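Standup notes
- HV: blocked on the assembly model, inputs below
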Amino acid sequence: MTTLGAALERVSPGEVVIAFTHRDELTQQHGFLHAGVMTSVADSACGYAALSLMEPGVGVLSVEFKVNMLAPAVGERFIATGRVVRSGRTLTVCAGEVTTERDGRTVAVLLMQATMMAVRGKAEVAD
Amino acid sequence: MTTLGAALERVSPGEVVIAFTHRDELTQQHGFLHAGVMTSVADSACGYAALSLMEPGVGVLSVEFKVNMLAPAVGERFIATGRVVRSGRTLTVCAGEVTTERDGRTVAVLLMQATMMAVRGKAEVAD
Amino acid sequence: MTTLGAALERVSPGEVVIAFTHRDELTQQHGFLHAGVMTSVADSACGYAALSLMEPGVGVLSVEFKVNMLAPAVGERFIATGRVVRSGRTLTVCAGEVTTERDGRTVAVLLMQATMMAVRGKAEVAD
Amino acid sequence: MTTLGAALERVSPGEVVIAFTHRDELTQQHGFLHAGVMTSVADSACGYAALSLMEPGVGVLSVEFKVNMLAPAVGERFIATGRVVRSGRTLTVCAGEVTTERDGRTVAVLLMQATMMAVRGKAEVAD
């Protein structure tokens, strides 16, 4: 997240917002932000959102996620929101979104659907 | 890709291999590589694989992808492979994978299924 | 849809609602509705939602979708909603959901994220 | 599966093959098999593949899956294959595929990536 210049903007139970800004070294061949960068931040927002509903001492790991790119990631500042859709003891399903401001209006650039797993004790993905 | 320390390893028609190495600033809270980093490289491998079957002058954009984390991304060196499953004039479906060597054997850490779009002229995602 | 006992409940620009009822031959080994049945209806709701924003004479095909099962599909009557998130000339991104009523409250049982393609002339998936 | 006219063709540890035939009531508006039908069978093949590697007495539920349609589902007989990519105590990641024979060659019509969950005792999705 430091590499991406991202900062936690808001944390409420079941919803987390992360803001990050455009940096030239994160652009891809067409000049806009790489899909992977936006995905990383959306994944983090979803992970923290899942974590916000778990009991203290529990960790969280991404089981899987799916993203759709909705618009070219052109912009100066991006907002990633992760929201818990269904919270279970082991698995949590989240919806994520990345938006930017363009010409005074909010443009959605990425949509995510993700599954997070609570990790109690030893961490192992796909366990 | 430069930020991620990644390098194109092999390009053949319909299949691209990218190698990248572990860097401390890309790790997440559990000490292994962030899911987003592995996803970025797998996405690039799939994108280049799709591009390798398109006619000259055409660009490629990620429409969407879905990844499963298969094992903790612990390792020094990772290999991302993107392979075209179905190539069409507008859309190309790819399968991606990230592996690492651990104790002398290959461990799969990420599995991707992605849709890429050929861009002729003006680039617009979800167009 | 006839096989599934489904009926179009509401069509508005960019949003379509389909209702369907539980039928014994559609249950799986645990006694609740098969994931594929709910997926079929959610896919149809998303497809019609995409179609509702396209010009007359255009067809629609599912490019891909991803679903999360949120709760066991126990219930008598289910509601599938498809909603357009991003509409483009060729591709449309939709969000789908299936809910049921249980003990007087709405329970979400399936969450979908889908990509639909406009078909002008000859229909070809992944074209 | 009976409604779909499907039959288990082969079961080996970590891989399951289900065959099914075209039936007119399962076609969609363009005259080929509905995406949901193929998805249902691929989901079942993946579920059984996951189950084939679990200890006796354990059940399996679909956590989530993502499918890409690769070609129009025109054909008489379809083969769905589910294969375990990564097997864990709780979660199993599977790859699925549906193919058909057309003009003497095998055509892939659907590609799936799925997460299955072992159910020990009380069944609850997203638990």
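- HV (later): unblocked. The radius of gyration of chain D is 15 Å. Helices of chain D lie at 35-51.
- Next: hand off to the docking folks.
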